[in-house]
Amino acid sequence: MHPEANSTSITLAVADFLLSPTGRAMTHSLHQVDLRAEQTLTILQELRKTSSSAEAGAVLALARLRQRAIEKFPQAQELFFTPEALEQATAWPVAEHRAAWLDRHAPPGPVLDLGCGIGGDMLALAQRRPVIAIERDSLRLRFAQANAAALGLTEAITFHQADWTTWLTEGALPAAAAAFADPARRVAERRIFSLHQMQPPLAALLRLAQTIPALGVKVMPGVLDEELPPNCGVEFISHAGVCKEAVLWLGPLAHHVRWASVHTADGWTCIVASGVAPPLGELKPGFVLHEPDPAVIRAGALLELCTRLAAHLFDPQIAYLVSPERRLDPLAQSFLIHEVAPFSLKQLNRRLEALGIGQVELKKRGFPDEPENLRPRLRLAPGRRPSVIFFTRRGGERLMLIAERLRHATVSSK
């Protein structure tokens, strides 16, 4: 790709151009244009007729970011992004969900958005309460202001360019009823896996909680249990089938200890974990296997999901649920088990051929090998019936399960 169209940073002067009427018009002109890499030179040549090379490259880069951002923001074609800020930004349904929780449980008053970035959470919060947005990066702050204007939220937001941790130390933070923080989870382009290594780290956030008890902190979904501060609640959030983040809720926002919130096309489903181990039972053909959403697994809400599905585990260490009943739940994917057998590649190939299976989806849990490494060795008949193969274990026994995916139209209660 042409380097001018793949810049990860732009100057403030170029940002000003993007925010100008001319820059906005040029970017809008690319909304319906084919922006694939092979079109880069042609597009840049056209844009350079009325702008500098740097401006043309920034326009094309922003247009491409807006195309990517549609997956996160329904209003993406009106918003301004940088690559790093878009990657870190919260998807709009998640931001709305989080803003609703904070608004419902925090005391009345404005909310501090600390490190607002380009404004993903800020915009959702400002639809419910006054927001005081603080961002130390001048480029991100300008884009956050432009994004607020694009959604007609300028009057609801007060902006400050500052390092909020310095203000906290100096006792200069604005008064607020609640606060939300999104610490950086990359340092020197390296992903961080500890709450103590985030920027700012957990210690600074806990100092903030002494001033503003109603605090939410966006953290990594793999947050370590031993690092969780006392008396906090942790919510694991899944969007588009992926557990993308967790939130530490402190003070009046910590209504549960651990819970999962899962977003699907039908909306949000939440499940609160009790911490009690789920039941164990048998595994056999004719049962339905339920693969819990990853947020449910991270929250430890398997007992609660078992209750919803009249299900049980077949191994205490394997997060697959099985039930004799056919039920569907937005918190799990479900599969009808046709065969259960000890793992044997030779036997698997025999059964694939006998059953006329030509397309397979491979899944594993508790199995030592990567299933995709086995795919080249499977004997499939192209164009024939599909199936799902699970590679798992029960105790020390390696198992293979031949199953079919259950969908809404095929699931009924017995």
List its traits.
13 helices, 30% helix, VC0802-like, disordered N terminus, nine-stranded mixed β-sheet, disordered C terminus, seven-stranded mixed β-sheet
Descriptive report:
- With 414 residues, the chain is an alpha/beta fold.
- It has 3 domains: 3-69, no CATH class; 87-255, Vaccinia Virus protein VP39 (Rossmann fold), CATH 3.40.50.150; 288-410, VC0802-like, CATH 3.30.2130.
- It is built from 13 helices and 18 strands.
- It has a 9-stranded mixed β-sheet with strand order 3-2-1-4-7-9-8-10-11, sandwiched between helices. The protein has a 7-stranded mixed β-sheet with strand order 13-14-12-15-18-17-16. A two-stranded antiparallel sheet has the order 5-6.
- Helix 1 (12-19) crosses helix 4 (53-69), helix 3 crosses helix 4 and helix 6 packs across helix 7.
- It is globular.
- The N and C termini lie far apart (56 Å).
- Mean pLDDT is 93; it is low at 1-8 and 409-414.
Q: In the CATH hierarchy, what is the class of the largest domain? A: Alpha Beta
CATH topology of the largest domain: Rossmann fold
Number of H/I helices: 13
Question: What is the distance, rounded to the nearest whole angstrom, between the alpha carbons of the first and last residues?
Answer: 56 Å
Residue stretches low in confidence (pLDDT < 50, at least 5 long) are 1-8, 409-414
The gross shape turns out to be: globular
- Number of E-type strands: 18
Please identify which CATH superfamily of the largest domain we are dealing with: Vaccinia Virus protein VP39
| Strand-residue proportion | 25-35%
SSE class: alpha/beta
User: How many individual domains?
Assistant: 3
CATH architecture grouping of the largest domain: 3-Layer(aba) Sandwich
The biggest beta sheet is recorded as: 9 strands, mixed
Radius of gyration: 25 Å
Helix content: 25-40%
Mean pLDDT across all amino acids:
93
Give me the side-by-side strand order of the main sheet.
3-2-1-4-7-9-8-10-11
